[in-house]
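Changelog excerpt

This revision adds worked examples to the README so contributors can see how folded entries look when concatenated. The first example is reproduced verbatim below.
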Amino acid sequence: MSIFERYLTLWVALCIVVGVALGHVMPGFFGAVAAAEVAKVNLPVAILIWLMIVPMLLKIDFGSLGQVREHWRGVGVTLFINWAVKPFSMALLGSFFIGHVFAPWLPSDQIPSYIAGLILLAAAPCTAMVFVWSNLCEGEPHYTLSQVALNDVIMVFLFAPLVGLLLGVASISVPWDTLLLSVLLYIVVPVIVAQLWRKMLLRGGDASFNRVMQMLQPLSLVALLATLVLLFGFQGEQIVRQPGVIAILAVPILVQVYLNAGLAYWLSRRFGVAWCVAAPAALIGASNFFELAVAAAISLFGLDSGAALATVVGVLVEVPVMLSVVRIVKATRGWYEAGTGKVPTAAEARQ
């Protein structure tokens, strides 16, 4: 992990300050940015989202899907958490904390939007940062790659229906045309472009591919931070009025991350999954594809919406929380392997 990635939480916090300040100093500029829309899609933000997503998708080799069978138990646990537990648990947590517990301290007209943003955050499994988390916890790299590739394929087909279902259950109006357009723009097209570009780059050899990736990685993070400045520029007035909103939105996100990471880790232990697979399984089960969530929230509800703010809070919370999960799984390795009966060899870990 680079220094820039290691201190991502600090840069996000600085973007909050800068965005809020610029929103008050340059309201005309942010108004012009907000007006640059086509079919409810903000063009400047769409460009920034692409700069974020495409470099991350370039890392995915969909050919690795053939390796799924080698780690079928770990893959099964993570798929169960990602698609059968996490989105639904977040819908419940969001409704409980935002719709009831903290509702008196929140603007009533934004509560449905906040819940929608949390749902969007939980419905998209992480596809990029998990490589960092897996590396930090000495996870099995083939499992991580195959799991991320499989999640990307599933997300192309399930993200829109799942979000539509959960937003409907939460009694939030679903603009299906905008949601489907978001999936097309921020999942389908980037995946196709990234895979075609990846094949072209690999024709020049691994060294050429790695050089391009090293060049693109800072661009991806800069685009993320620039997007956050815009988001907080539009959210500035609300944040100044109610700074506690960010802390409140962080509560269900924190509960959700530890709940799903713990459940994935425990299930892996019960099913005898090797620790080197269980550790990244817990991390993949808990983390979110916040770039997609931010993009979908902007497209569905607007730059200055509560949904956009909720997804941005997910960015702020995710890095320090996932680092803590890495520490927990590494610290409990002895307990985990004692429960499986033995310390598996490298060959056994691949079975």
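The second example, added in the same revision:
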Amino acid sequence: MDGDLGDFLRSRRARIRPEEVGLASHGRRRVPGLRREEVAQLAGVSVDYYIRLEQGRGPSVSDAVLDAIARVLRLDEEEHAYLYAVARPQKKRERRRAAPRVRPGIQVLLDGMAHHPAFVLGPAMDVLAWNALADALLGFSRMSAARRNIARHLFLAPDGRTVYPDWAAVAAQTVAHLRLNAGARPDDPGLRDLVGELSLKSEDFRRLWADHQVKACMYGVKRVQHPVAGLLTLPYESLTLPSEPDQTLVAYTPEAGSETAERLALLGSWATTGA
């Protein structure tokens, strides 16, 4: 996706100060962080080789070189994996596929989680299936199928900012997760279309996307402001389905007896009875 390797390497060397890696910093530097020749020197490759790699016109790069560059740029585990993905993009382009379907057994599982809002996401964060409590919480059934997407709702929907009191943090996490998925699936049409749409329509998304942060949002805590249930503090867990590696089950897991769990129980009752 649009020169990801070069952009990623430039963004990462810009955040490393020369003195952090044992280099002297003399006078005014034209670029923030490390220069390309400094990365090459520290990684043990020629300057020309590194420049061609950053420009996306280098030869097939070895594990040893990628590992050395990751060490110099102080990449964490997820950034290291992302570097591998964008340095070796899949050569076979994926054709546009039919809309993914969630197996009936997964829907039964969702419905059985009556006390926990739960839903299934695709790689581009499209909401593929959900249970009744997730619908009461986030209103999936009121969205059109084309708009039923976590990232699209977050950045483009009129209420996208009011749902999450910590919107800035949630937005940054969402973009970092999308960036990770895009690196692993560079030719996924759903991801490509989503990134293009959000880049065109949201200045906040463009700024966050250009920052090249990568992070898998597999667990954590989100706060949700609901018009009926009020403010809910929701721990969540995300599980990749073994039989469907492109689908992720997300479940909110408040502690039994907590104020949030009690409010969710009331929300479920309200959604069922309207009272």
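Reviewer comment on example two: The chain has 13 helices and five strands. Strands lie at 118-121, 127-130, 219-226, 230-241, 244-252.
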